[in-house]
Amino acid sequence: MGARAIPVNVSFLQELLGAVAEQGRQLLPRSLGGSSPRASLHELAAALLSGRGEASGVAIASEILARYRTLEAQERHAFLGHLATMQPDPEALAAAAKVYLANPNPSAVAALQGAVESPRQEFFRRLNLAPGATAQIVAMRQDLLAIADPALALVDRDLMHLLASWFNRGFLVLRRIDWQTPAAILEKIIEYEAVHEIQGWDDLRRRLDPGDRRCFAFFHPSLIDEPLIFVEVALMRDIPDDIQSLLREAPKNGDALETPTTAVFYSISNCQDGLRGISFGNFLIKQVVEDLVKECTSLRTFVTLSPVPQFASWLARTRADPESNLIDDIERERLQLLDELDWIYTYGNEAVRPLLMRLAAHYFLNVKTHEGFPADPVARFHLGNGARLERINWQGDISAKGLREAHGLMCNYRYELKEIEKNHEAYENEGLVAASRQVHALLKTERGRAEPGRFLQLSGLRSSRSGQVKEESE
Amino acid sequence: MGARAIPVNVSFLQELLGAVAEQGRQLLPRSLGGSSPRASLHELAAALLSGRGEASGVAIASEILARYRTLEAQERHAFLGHLATMQPDPEALAAAAKVYLANPNPSAVAALQGAVESPRQEFFRRLNLAPGATAQIVAMRQDLLAIADPALALVDRDLMHLLASWFNRGFLVLRRIDWQTPAAILEKIIEYEAVHEIQGWDDLRRRLDPGDRRCFAFFHPSLIDEPLIFVEVALMRDIPDDIQSLLREAPKNGDALETPTTAVFYSISNCQDGLRGISFGNFLIKQVVEDLVKECTSLRTFVTLSPVPQFASWLARTRADPESNLIDDIERERLQLLDELDWIYTYGNEAVRPLLMRLAAHYFLNVKTHEGFPADPVARFHLGNGARLERINWQGDISAKGLREAHGLMCNYRYELKEIEKNHEAYENEGLVAASRQVHALLKTERGRAEPGRFLQLSGLRSSRSGQVKEESE
Amino acid sequence: MGARAIPVNVSFLQELLGAVAEQGRQLLPRSLGGSSPRASLHELAAALLSGRGEASGVAIASEILARYRTLEAQERHAFLGHLATMQPDPEALAAAAKVYLANPNPSAVAALQGAVESPRQEFFRRLNLAPGATAQIVAMRQDLLAIADPALALVDRDLMHLLASWFNRGFLVLRRIDWQTPAAILEKIIEYEAVHEIQGWDDLRRRLDPGDRRCFAFFHPSLIDEPLIFVEVALMRDIPDDIQSLLREAPKNGDALETPTTAVFYSISNCQDGLRGISFGNFLIKQVVEDLVKECTSLRTFVTLSPVPQFASWLARTRADPESNLIDDIERERLQLLDELDWIYTYGNEAVRPLLMRLAAHYFLNVKTHEGFPADPVARFHLGNGARLERINWQGDISAKGLREAHGLMCNYRYELKEIEKNHEAYENEGLVAASRQVHALLKTERGRAEPGRFLQLSGLRSSRSGQVKEESE
Amino acid sequence: MGARAIPVNVSFLQELLGAVAEQGRQLLPRSLGGSSPRASLHELAAALLSGRGEASGVAIASEILARYRTLEAQERHAFLGHLATMQPDPEALAAAAKVYLANPNPSAVAALQGAVESPRQEFFRRLNLAPGATAQIVAMRQDLLAIADPALALVDRDLMHLLASWFNRGFLVLRRIDWQTPAAILEKIIEYEAVHEIQGWDDLRRRLDPGDRRCFAFFHPSLIDEPLIFVEVALMRDIPDDIQSLLREAPKNGDALETPTTAVFYSISNCQDGLRGISFGNFLIKQVVEDLVKECTSLRTFVTLSPVPQFASWLARTRADPESNLIDDIERERLQLLDELDWIYTYGNEAVRPLLMRLAAHYFLNVKTHEGFPADPVARFHLGNGARLERINWQGDISAKGLREAHGLMCNYRYELKEIEKNHEAYENEGLVAASRQVHALLKTERGRAEPGRFLQLSGLRSSRSGQVKEESE
């Protein structure tokens, strides 16, 4: 390279890269140009939709996203509100609706489909042309959900529609998370863990690195450093009944547990608020089961160790309800123990155990939402996936959170491959709760009397939606 | 591992993997079960849509795709025809249309959007749950386009809508193709090259491996071994005027051309018939320009060396039209040379050169489609991207194909970053053809008289759509 | 970035990169400097050894390698001859030798080790500092071996010593070669295949891509695109007896042979002439067996299908030797068939079969080198690895090469894990040839009389080195 | 797959994998076999050397390493002591020495080379056949160095020789360490940082993640998760004069420092004790300079911010030496301030500054080892690499360590590409210390009188080894 040539080239390079980087500015309508850096986002949004072609699209989309990032909360609300006004042309829509009604043939349907589609959808699709846009569109929905303005429901509807299509399971990639994973991803695992908080990097290592632990996450190719959902697994020889011993550091020589029989899913966390309502957990669990089975041929049992997040609040309401005949006066009195500080560490705590276990079984089997599904959200998730309620665990989680939410109870849901489908269908269609005999038996403990009419015993193991007492549902 | 344990585990493993693999069969409605392997695809399609939940979705989707692959052409046609019947519920749609007309508020719009969406879209989204489904859905559209049955237009509309969303540029990945690329991809480059056929692996290597050659392709993360579109580039010191010398093997020591100034895009090929109508070329060229500029700071000029695929057929029509005053009688006679075998190798071929060059300039600048865009499809692509027509090259491609399609002419389109946007907009909005003075000057050659009214000279360099003589367009 | 800053920076960049690139020149003794581009390689070699420090080392090493590449064959010979003069200092060596003899303690040994080490070794170690040097040092040894000048034996000794250390099996990486492998490596597979020539890319694909074919190679991290040795494997259900049907294209639907029982190693090729004498084959076969067993649990049998490269030449010598009592007159006459063109396609060819098979068995079991190992080099390799001779195959390879070298015979060596070690030790220590009963039985065919004293039957299956008739060895 | 086939296969698989895993045991001399799990390592070492062939080599090597890992410290010492007895055969060596003395020709040299080589070297080369052996051999040398037994010097000599050959710079790979790096490597960066301790993961992130920080490490392909040496770099606009502000968290918006001019190497740490004495730092710095220049074209200055680890101890000795005329009585008194707690935070600390700076300049320029090189080890490293001493910084490091070792002083060494070679040669050949005028000027501060004869001013900027006053060296 000659000495003279280089400065010239560089000057060209500088100009060219500058041109590329600044394309957005050049391409915008003159009124929005470089001179007015705060040019209206509304105009940019209109420009993006106006069909200035694909090249301009990338530039305008980048500009919109760059500006959006600098907006304050209120300005973001305003911009999202503006998007809510991007409605189909009412006259064209009315015309197409009339044509359809007059002559409801396929091409009238097609015309109506075209006329009714919100231009917002095309707006978001074009926004996605910009590099890194997908993550920012997800973040935009996160803003929208945080605002909780009913006027934005239309925007959310379109965003949700698009994101559900883009984040279709067919596009997701399962990756193992371990100590070889980049720190940039690991710190997000720490941040996103929602069930049993990770206390820094040492705690993280205890959950990922030992030979008997696994963690898996779904990723989307366009959000490469951002897990969508992840699950933490322990390989054991028994179904565990408390989280404390599971989370405790593994014994030095116990890492390479040779023939584990039981894979325990003890924490599943969604990571992206902006993808709320798009369900990945079901796919994740089934994919992980498949992969674990291939890796470790001694596994036979797949269970969770799960929290019961709303048991305590339901129980409080029940205790406060003088009409409830679920608990008699003696029992009400006995339950007062729960109101004492550190009751779990008292000698007397065992006295309340049979009662609490019975009430928990009732809570799982009989307490339903208005739609007829179990009141407990974690139960809805696993039962909806086709798992069955295997066991309720006394003192399963005696952390402050565990005591506050569930008086220390946890439970195991079991995924039995042969049953998954029939459980799932019975649940979806009839609201049946698949549960082990052991759980059903709890209903009869202590009081020594049956609770007739409380649940239908379907194939001996399920309670039905229809057997519900209305006032107990929530 | 104990000797006893293993057979047990394996038997479990076998059962489990079998269960996973055969899930599809188990999950299907009993009527479709394992006993009737040829169970109706229609019923499976209905089951996929019926909301048996996500787990069943994966299984049913896999089953549908597996069966579809085994269908004969006619059966595929029938199945696609069945999909055409997946229309919105007419009564619900009519009701929603009436509600909207009565009270055209946003929630009526939303309801109408819901009522009018074709269930086919959800069908395809669920089909995509199966592993590897995206590639098969693309292949399904390829089948559909090959059938060319108007009754399938509705299906194509939905497929196109979905695929355009899934193959949004934001999800594409640019990868360099070179001699380090896996053979599985390279053989597809050989197969898909549509402009200048690649004559086997040695020819491929000549196009990829030398230091002054580049090839880039767009990939989608879900079609990892399948390029969507690729471009071949030569780094040179001048704008080339013929393809033969460009494709000839580079001199042994000429590989590492030290300071190329000109990047020549000499072949752009779309690879996926099933994605027809979804444009990637514009994005590809601009991304490659950006990447080349970063890699090689001496580059200043970005041009194509392009075919003129329909010049010969246009000229044949013009010669056959006695009314055309584009060519006078002497010229008609002179053009008879083109009808002779091997005319290009005769001494007399230069005699026809000025005339052909003038006619080519006319063809580019003045001959338009009914929509007012250039008749030549390659011209429409590059001019639509914002390039300008830089030069027409005599004997640019004297291969049999080059002579047959364009009497040996090729041309260069030039991408000048500063002009791209204004060229693009002028083209889109007014049909203006950006061309160099050199090309415009060709119009005046030979006959010695101007051709008034033939084209508007916009800033001296463009011909407008409005300046067209109707009967010349196609 | 400011517009002014860039040219300055670039000028700095240019200077800096120039400085780095040209370091070599600057660092050399002034007499060798930039002014004299053909400065003596001898002086550079001396400079590299002279301890100008590590930084200079990289530069000087790069310069030496760059210049070496430009040398003609004769100049290379001269340079290698110069390296042969890099001997230890004779006076220091004599002194150290005397000290040792006077007082042979450990520190005298250490001093003598220091004094006797050839400075050439340090020269090559420093040469390896340059980027990409390892491959070039391997190439340098290839040059040296091609020259075959006894005066270079000292240089080869040191090169061999170093390369054996650098290419220690602990540093090698096994990689599967398939259709996903970069073309740059695949073309080397085509080039290096030494046993059954690969006829271009289509043939290559037939050997790599079908579901029942495998190919594995060893790589060294510093020669990343260069396989060191590779093996081609077919997964089958039987031990194959001819190469023609094995190489023929697999049936369309036969790719995914479901439960192969037999892995057939039908071609093993060393790739790097410059690493001649450093053995990788043994490690490769054992590693591949391990990997195949993990991948495909139905495999039980591991065999080769191997050529018998020197059988024909041995037989020719035997026939020419009137003293040999291996064949009687009738047999000599019968063997004349082999001299006829296309004898293999004659009806009569079966007549010579029993005789040839007997002679081949004799060739394998009884014909030895002076060191007491089998005369056949392929046999030495596999038997030395612990395999046993399983079968001799009539018409195993009827290609021109197969007929020329072995009258069409091939054989199978079998790797039986339990026997490998004892076979190996018996072979190494006593020259015993492990062979199946079937092969031993061939010795007795046709003539109807035993051949007493020809071989010792060790555990019924081996012939010993000591049982040799001297005049038959080679 | 048939149900019956699988258990059979698995049983075979189990047997086969077992066979492979247990090969070691089978292959050992019967006396060492499975029955006697504690079979003598000495016998195994002998077996490894005895030429049982390569397959046995892998097995025996694995067994030796596995057993070595389980040894207690004393047993390891004993085993290494045993290796020290692996000396060449004294008779063969004496014979070869005599032959050489009688007739010192090349083949006698070769024979002597063969006879004198320690069998230990071959032992270690064969030990390296085992998977993962290289890391364990490095660890073995770490044990050896920790033992510090002179009797092991012979073993160390051979290990060092081999490791220097295996870890030749030609085999090293430079990798950037950042927040995308696997946690398994990052935790080693935390562990190995030897200059400015990293206080956990947050501190690590501050050093790796911001846009103006870099970290690079050398890796060897066989120790893939183990950095050999790493350097931390800050990109700045000035040469920094204290470490506190450099390590402080970067301002939120200051990450992407746009045009840094100065790359500051503020920490270089060797990671592998077992590779002590094999120098990587020089290569690392030069490679990183090359890479940084390519990445960031605005960089012009490459400096270190380095500790002065032995200044305080040298000063203590000087103060304790009543004969030293470096400091007069007034100065001795003034230096007593340094003995006070927290003197650095007193108002009076500036009073001692000129004196300390003068003494530090003297320490760098004039205090030498017996070999004539600077007393300071960090100075020896950078000056030996060709850097020059650019500046001494008052209060450069006021951490406890910085005060204890250097009374808070730090210094900058500057790598000026044009000077590196001449500095390096002048240093190596004559012991000249390259230093800036600024540093030289410090020598004359305060006392107001020159210090004649203290140093030679070579081209005005260097002090020579020969100008030393003997009693000051150490």
What does this structure look like?
Four copies of one chain form a homotetramer. The first copy, chain A, has three domains: 5-166, Butyryl-CoA Dehydrogenase, subunit A, domain 3 (Up-down Bundle), CATH 1.20.140.90; 169-304, Aminopeptidase, CATH 3.40.630.180; 307-472, 3-Layer(aba) Sandwich (Aminopeptidase), CATH 3.40.630. In chain A, helix 5 (90-102) packs antiparallel against helix 6 (106-116), helix 7 (119-127) packs across helix 9 (153-166) and helix 8 packs antiparallel against helix 9 (153-166). The longest helix of chain A has 23 residues, at 5-27. Chain A contains 20 helices and ten strands. The first copy, chain A, is α+β, with helices and mostly antiparallel strands and 474 residues long. In chain A, the strands form two sheets. In chain A, strands 1, 2, 3, 4, 5, 6, 7 and 8 form an eight-stranded mixed beta sheet that branches. A two-stranded antiparallel ribbon of chain A has the order 9-10. Chains in contact: A-B, A-C, A-D, B-C, B-D, C-D. Chain A binds chain C through residues 1, 3, 6-7, 10-11, 14, and chain C through 1, 3, 6-7, 10-11, 14.
